Amino acid sequence: MHTPTSDTPRLAIRGIRKVYPSAIANDGINLTVMPGEIHAVLGENGAGKSTLMKVIYGVIRPDAGEILWEGRRETISNPAQARALGIGMVFQHFSLFETLTVVQNVALSIPGRLDLATLSRRIEEVSSRYGLPVDPRRLVHALSVGERQRVEIIRCLLQNPRLLILDEPTSVLTPQAVRKLFETLRQLAAEGVSILYISHKLDEIQELCHRATVLRGGKVTGTCIPSRETPQTMARMMIGVDLPACCHGEPGDGGEVRLHIEGLSHATEDPFGTDLRDIHLQVRSGEIVGIAGVSGNGQQELLRAISGEEPLAGKHAIQMCGVQVGRMNPARRRALGMCFVPEERLGRGAVPRLTLTENILLTAYRKGMLFSGLIRFGVAKRFAEECIRRFDVKCGGANSEAKSLSGGNLQKFIVGREIMQDPKLLVLAQPTWGVDVGASSFIRQSVLDLRNSGTAILVISEELEELFEICDRIVVMAKGTLSPSKVTSETDVEEIGMWMSGLWPGAGAPEGAGHVA
Amino acid sequence: MGLDFISSILFATIVAGTPLIIVALGELVTEKSGVLNLGAEGTMSVGAVAAFAVAHHTGSPALGILAGMGAGMFMSLLFGLSALTLMANQVASGLALSIFGVGLSAFIGKSYESVALASVDPIRIPWLHRIPVLGPSLFAQQGLVYFSWILIAAVAWFLYRSRAGLVLRAVGESPVSAHAIGHGVVRIRYQAVLFGGAMAGIGGAFLSVFYTPMWAEGMVAGRGWIALSLVVFATWRPGRVMIGAYLFGGCMITQMFVQGSGARIAIPAQFLSSIPYVATIVVLVLISRNRGTIRLNSPASLGQPFLPDA
Prior knowledge:
The structure holds two protein chains of two kinds. Chain A is an alpha/beta fold. Chain A has helices at 49-56, 79-85, 102-108, 116-129, 145-157, 175-190, 202-208, 231-239, 299-307, 330-335, 356-364, 377-390, 407-419, 437-452, 464-470, 493-499; strands at 11-19, 24-33, 38-43, 64-69, 72-74, 87-90, 163-167, 194-198, 211-216, 219-224, 257-266, 276-284, 288-292, 318-320, 323-324, 338-341, 370-371, 374-375, 425-429, 456-460, 473-478, 481-482, 486-487. Chain B has a two-stranded antiparallel ribbon with strand order 1-2. In chain B, α3 (61-85) runs antiparallel to α9 and α11 runs antiparallel to α12. The interface between A and B is medium-sized, with 30 and 25 residues.
């Protein structure tokens, strides 16, 4: 019998190839992960990272190539088999069940008898030990994206995996939570667990990972030791060219008020939601205002109130371009010149089964795509093709289904669709969540260009660096209320980070109910 | 009249509601796995005729029930092959199964027309059946009536307390996610469909062996469709299925008493006959109009075929 020794790779894959009708996702990929190694997989959207991880986890069957697990050749034909081998995975598009509670979701991937009380205690243990706060009894549909990701991570950790695959795990964590997660991952690695770490944050990879494999266009373009590289050299390996720096331009001198929120209070229908309390906010043309905060503090409720998905009782609380819109539905608000990029790409931002052209029609139909109640598909298709070209969306053309695009490419497409409508007011939620570095900087630059042309922009994001990079002013959301605004150049990450716990000057005494990481 | 009358109305209500409960609970489990099987009417019909034939030839009602169950599972297996293995449209497959089943049962049942079975004595629960009014109506019933009560508790326990039930609900909620964490979506859906078929078969057997111990073409008379709508209007919750089924049974029996009493009422008979259908739907819609309840209980993938990524 073959016994693994310390120099037997935990996982070695050779010549993995996967071809889809529209593209070659993986083309002869080789990768080796040693026991206790934290190995980064770097690549742009569409480079084939997610496909490769799904092959290792048994979700997708490769067309060619072999997988060696601890020196033995394995055909991993389904995820249950992968888990039995000791492989755990945190997905980028979450695989949680919305109508079930957190503990039920976790129970689904743990074999054995159903003992929810004991499992809840174990979840609470793991969650406090690794700084991933989440209440096991809550229903998943009421959780924010950040909280859902915590559930995914906890679910994996409970299975004591020997290889842990993490797909963009830190994108929605606070800096403190990222530090705690890194401690956990290092501790796991020290205990001999191998980690495959997919991230677009080059500084994180440098800080955390022992080795990195870089993918471009479905092929391995190189391996490196991140601590001996700089972010610039790694970015060059990944995208093939140097990374453009964002140019910010002069701050606007206060144009007309495009979004005016005055004393907005709103009790949510969702029993697990956060009620909005006395919110005041102004966004002027030619400026970008950012809302920072840990998810679950009322961001979703505020977004629904602004987008019109949850109309308010009175019309006075929200004004757009001088019109009181509190009771208007999203279509009427859009007719006033508001555009909106929601947090969830598939489902709210785009319809998965519709083609890109049809998805264009959903919000941009006012741009000459209707004629006497009939659709002018030619105009819509040209709009889609223009969007694909201008925003460099990697896809099989305007007729491919939205769900066939990778997360970052779909986001570029959705942001592009909204920007090309020349909005007067643009509201963006987590604009670059899970989007790689090249695409992120492109999206940020597009948003900045739009601001310079006079649009009022509101960005809700959990990524502080992003807010500091593009915003003129920053406010913080905590426990359903908004802090006063700060001019970006007059504040820093430390101050905003402290405010994220609800501790800004003049704030009411903190209550226990908020979700603060 | 008086107490005896109330007792007999109650008795008849429970008898009329029992097949609906059994069939609807089977369909509820099927739908919770994300599969919409509209074949209940046909499955019940085939179950009814199979049960009748076996009970007639063997003289054993119990074997009749088993035959009904087996026939129901066979029918649902046909549905599974079409909708789950070959991934045909579930609505079309179910409708075809209903039409096929009703026709097949008429064909098989041709030689059993005008044959009657001996009626089966009820099972009296010791002591309990002596309670005035409630005793004779609740505790001197056919075995399948008690079975339907156990089934309600068992299905509720299975769905909300057992691991297998949790997996089933997860499959119905998001088959792609369930597949991604390693649960066999098609296998679980087959099991749910077979359970639904077995219950529909037993429901049919109850009609032809106990309810009216004879076979007549078309004797299922739309009960399969009522059971289907009960599941939806009860927002996929076992307790509410029971409420709806007895409500339907109660209205049905009451309007039959009114029509049969010879009282001269200026209401057309057709209107009276429609009351059970209308009343059941109105009441269930009213008690389950909360959007949150619907969102939490309806299986999100209902009716969608499962196509794995690879």
